[in-house]
Structures are given as structure tokens and as C-alpha cells.
């Protein structure tokens, strides 16, 4: 599932040098929120095959950006 038609994974977004860290954080947070909403919907009986693995990947990407900004 491509995010915004461009990023297949959070790591793909992190590797996009055309984005500032602040923009990456903003986009990852939105992606996280979208995934959480999707997971809630599937738990409420809507069909889908997406897993919460992306949430873990997004959290890891956000943590890496946080470490980079603290350096």
C-alpha cells in the first residue's frame, strides 16, 4: 500500500532527501493516524488485510528522526 502514491514503507519516506525532518515527522504521524483508523475499522468488522506491522515501522522511523534532531 503506497502512502500518498509514493512511499511503500516508512523507510522509503525517510530516504526522501527532498523533505525536511519536520515534514517527514508530520507525514509519518499522519500515516500512523491513518493506519490506526484503518486497524480500528477492520476490528469493527470492515474487511481488509493490512497489519499493524506498519505502525511498528512508522514508530521506528519517528524514533530515528527524533534521535537525529537531538544530535
The overall pLDDT, averaged over residues, is 84
| Tally of contiguous helical segments | 3
Low-confidence stretches: none
Overall form: globular
How many whole angstroms does the radius of gyration measure?
13 Å
Number of strands: 0
Strand content: under 5%
| Ends distance | 32 Å
Alpha-beta classification: mainly alpha
| Total number of distinct structural domains | 1
Helix content: 55-70%
* Largest sheet, strands/sense/barrel: none
Elements, N to C (H/E): HHH
Describe the protein in words.
The protein has 71 residues and is mainly alpha-helical. The protein has one domain (10-70). It contains three helices and no strands. It has helices at 10-14, 21-43, 53-70. α2 (21-43) runs antiparallel to α3. The longest helix has 23 residues, at 21-43. The radius of gyration is 13 Å and the shape is globular. The N and C termini lie far apart (32 Å). The mean pLDDT is 84.
Short summary:
The chain is built from three helices and no strands.
